[in-house]
Amino acid sequence: MKQSRFGASLALVAMLAACSGGGGGGGSVSAPPTGGGGSVTPAPTPAPTTAGCTLRERQDWARQQLDEWYLFPELLPASLNPANYATVEDYIDGLTATARAQQKDRYFTYLTSIAEENAYYSSGSSAGYGFRLAGDSLARRVWISEAFEGAPALAAGIDRGTEILAIGTSASNLRTVDSIVAAEGLNGVSNALGGSAVGTTRVLRIRDAAGTRDVSVSMADYALTPVSSRYGAKVIDDGGTKVGYVNLRTFINTADPALRAAFAQFKAQGVSKVIVDLRYNGGGLISIAELMGDLLGGGRTSSDVFSYTVFRPSKASNNETRYFAPQPESVAPTRIAFIGTGGTASASELVINAFIPYLHANAALVGTNTYGKPVGQIAVDRTACDDRLRVIALAVQNSAHQGGYYSGLSGTVEASCRASDDINYPLGDPRESSTKAALDFLAGRSCTAIAGAGQSTLALREAPRELIAPERPSTLQREVPGAF
Question: What pLDDT does 69 receive?
Fold first, then answer.
């Protein structure tokens, strides 16, 4: 199956269905979850004639898929010898190097596992400690930005704002984060935490409001809750005005009922101003992005365009116009504050961009500039090898045909408020800097615009703390930046 998606983001041969991933993969055929509406269904592509899984066969297959589907065919090299590459992944990186140099494909085209991706998109299933890490490479420090319900870290008392001071496989061989980062950079922290195998155990020396202590935590399978049961959706009383707040971690199928419940709550309380917190959301399924748009689009009609999906000229028959489809739970906000950071990508940016032509300066980006991923992937599966190739094959635009925001959305939005990600307070707490700035915008109070609109996301990255990611991220880590 080929399934289209946006994900760093992010983050799928029988058909093409809509999906969006971060910043941020796919022959016999296997059908990954689609998540519903907005699918694009071109004619089937014949499976390769061989089910072989040698390195060269897999490399040749990957090249065939890029030649057929890649959004930027003019940027593919005319010839590139697979024998010069030790892995399929390295060969794909070589094929997309020119597009990457132009900031059009920052490792958005990649190879992943069918089984791993299916498990994640259907239920958020993954293995890990269940926290999100941010680091300061200059100060050589690392903190927990978020801890997930039902996962090992939170059960061990590790939550947002906790600082990791040292990491070891036992209490006797702890290495300080300072020394790890000094020797290997922030990637060294990723290496020190180990792979993503269930049972991997690390001893962490941590510091939080309760003091400094050593804790042992082991990786386990858990299902990521896309809308936190603790702070994911609520109504904030801002001086007598009811403001809806929703924090979406990732666009996966299980977000559907949680989002509907959140907006039903907003509607019941007459909410007309909404904060949509996407600060760490690297993307996911386009169908859930469309649902988010519909829930925010109570004032839109079925003739209002949510987005345009555009393929390369040879695949133009797959182009699609998606219209708003208000739901029973939809609200019609007069103002929306979208909280974003450099970890906000893909499907998150799709939603933000969709509202600019309708709300103009009544829709603001709050926080810092976003990642910049106005393109989406399809997935092509080679089932015998558990290979899913994620190929950048489509671009998205809003109803005003605004797209191409490879440097982030700060140069596209008509209003913005700069704010930090204040890990000293829980997400959604009115005292937290980004949430406070969002409330200020919604109330018409003054704020400072995000500087440097249109510049590179790297130049606008919130200094000095940044989300940490391994060199070869898992599906979870592409769609939930900083997750381990």
Answer: 98
Cα–Cα distance for residue pair 27/50, rounded to 1 Å = 8
In single-letter form, the type of residue at position 457 comes to T
In this structure, what token pair is assigned to residue 441?
Answer: 């915008």
3-state DSSP of 89-156: HHHHHHHCHHHHHCCCCCCCCEEEEHHHHHHHHHHCEEEECCEEEEEECCCCEEEEEEECCCCHHHHC
Pairing of strands 375-382, 387-397: antiparallel
Nearest to 369 by CA among 413, 399, 432, 336: 413
In Å, what is the CA distance from 480 to each residue of 83, 443, 467, 476? 34, 30, 10, 6
d(CA 209, CA 424): 10
Closest alpha carbon to 276 in 306, 326, 233: 233
Q: What is the pLDDT of residues 59-116, one digit of tens each?
A: 999 999 999 999 999 999 999 999 999 999 999 999 999 999 999 999 999 999 998 8
Tell me which H or E stretch contains 16.
strand 16-18
* pLDDT value at residue 122: 85
The predicted pLDDT at position 119 comes to 84
User: Which segments in the chain show pLDDT lower than 70?
Assistant: 1-51, 452-464
Tell me how far apart the alpha carbons of residues 112 and 387 are, in angstroms, rounded to a whole number. Answer: 6
Half-sphere exposure of 44 (CA within 13 A, CB side): 12
Taking the CA of residue 381 as centre, how many other CA atoms within 13 Å lie in the half-sphere pointing to its CB?
A: 25
d(Cα 375, Cα 388) in Å, to the nearest integer? Answer: 18
SS3 sequence of 203-252: EEEEEECCEEEEEEEECEEEECCCCCCCCCEEEEEECCEEEEEEECCCEC
Beta bridge partners of 378: 391
The encoded tokens of residue 424 equal 């000293």
The length of the chain is 484
Asked whether the whole model's pTM tops 0.85, one would answer yes
Q: How far apart are CA 160 and CA 482, in angstroms?
A: 13
At residue 274, φ and ψ (nearest 5 deg) are -135, 140
